[in-house]
Amino acid sequence: MVAADVVDLNFNYPSLPEQGDALREALRQLAMAGDIDSHLRYQPHAGRLAERDIIARHLTCQHFAPDAENVLIVNGAQHGLAVTVMGLLRPGDVVAVDALTYSGFKVLAALYHLELAAIPCRPEGPDLQALQTLCQQRRVRAVYTMPTLHNPLGWVLNTGQRQALADLARQHDLLIIEDAAYARLVSRPPPPVVSYAPERTVYVTGFSKNIATGLRVGVVISPPRYRPEIERAIRATTWNTPTLISSLICAWIEDGTVARFETQKRQDARQRQQVAREVLCGLPVVSHPDSYFVWLPLGEESRADRLANALMERRISVSTAEPFCVSATIPQALRIALGSVPFDSLRPALLSVRDAVEYEQYR
């Protein structure tokens, strides 16, 4: 989080103007429901089966129809990643990750003493030949992947890449951890990687980016053989996700609120991307039309930390590549989050970023 007087282009917590009123109404309906007393009691570690069934149907798409028994409700996607790591990996395990990857997974890996092995990033996705070579040289236990709206690079892997990743995982007996935190923002995504290798893929998603970050409800979809260990990790960390919030989310799924918000968020993300492309035109921006962030590589003589400090002096917060970087050499680049600032404030903030970048390049 950043100070109230800072324009936040660092973190993404997109929200819509109507969401506050929707939450008030949902809480009122929840208070009037007949089973309100049940929220005062412990619940199954994986969540109530009726809610898991609602979520399973919500996530069903082409080539992917999860069984409610394999759906585990958690306290947000970050918690989903944590219980997956806790339950299925051990200290010292080697996990292949993109050379630029989600910073939250890096934190988990450090806490649980995992060894992250960097896979080079190409414009279209990870270098799978490099992953193949790594698996031939090392005992790799798992691969962590964001195939649909990669954070921070924004790529969406095509079906051929997804199949190739699944084939490689089978060949080398890898656990696949598929992070789909941003996937619901893509209008027509390919089938998830879990549909290509369901027996070895743990699929993790949530309702933060497509609905609201404060509603800490996430989902883990696990192969049956992994489910008991992940449930044990849920028990050890939170016992169960509070049903006050999971029941609210499920009610929104059933009455169409989630679908409506997702449609509006996709439109909002595309509009913000358009503003970013207009303002940053001519700079080497890397992004996806449905993404709430852009990646901005800098010139050879530029220093991202110096640029970020200069922007902070203007009360604008951005991220450098360092939190995302796994390889030894940190690229000089910025990740610019588009989802947190009011829409009317986005263009002037990005103009300030452009001015600072151009000044840094020609100083």
From TrEMBL:
Coiled coil: none annotated. The keyword Transferase applies. GO terms for molecular function: pyridoxal phosphate binding; transaminase activity. InterPro entries: Aminotransferase_I/II_large, HTH_trans_reg/aminotransferase, PyrdxlP-dep_Trfase, PyrdxlP-dep_Trfase_major, PyrdxlP-dep_Trfase_small. Residues 5-338 form the Aminotransferase class I/classII large domain. Keywords: Aminotransferase, Transferase. This is GntR family transcriptional regulator domain / Aspartate aminotransferase. The lineage of its organism: Bacteria, Pseudomonadati, Pseudomonadota, Gammaproteobacteria, Enterobacterales.
